[in-house]
Design a protein that fits this description.
Number of domains: 1
CATH class: Mainly Beta
Shape: elongated
Helix content: 10-25%
Distance between the termini: 47 Å
Order of helices and strands: HHEEEEEEEE
Oligomer: single chain
Number of strands: 8
Length: 166
Amino acid sequence: MPFRKFAIASLISLLSLPALADDKGFYVGAGLTQIETDNSSLSDEDNSYKVFAGYRANGYLAFEGAIVDLGKFKEDNLDFEGHSAQVAAHVGFPLGQRFRLFGSVGAHAWDADGNATDDDTGVDLTYGAGVEMDVFRNIGIRAEYEVLQVGDIDLNQTTASAFILF
């Protein structure tokens, strides 16, 4: 019985090894996005881009800023085109040496053209989740899903990106 307790305790202690990795520092990245909206009056999707930079404090916490093209949508007599500047906190959990799951929450200042929203500018909530994989020691790839509120429209953004950690 004491051996079993020792073995279980040893296995549990191995879960903390990813926290010992030197995975902190500044990073920059860019990605391609697909943005969809299913607003009752405007249902469409568009491809666009995201450019981001941030600081990873450790494997569990990062702070990030991004510039996002919100795409162009047009249906019947409604149209929308916009851009967004974002700030967000990423709370993550390392899975082994190379993978990291994360959730993000933040705010974004957006600017829109067209008649699909009542306002031309605003600051709203953004939230999402994703997974990162370190391909090399300082180069990684990321897949993430975010919801960006733009006035009374929710934009669903799926992004595939690459980043460099300094």
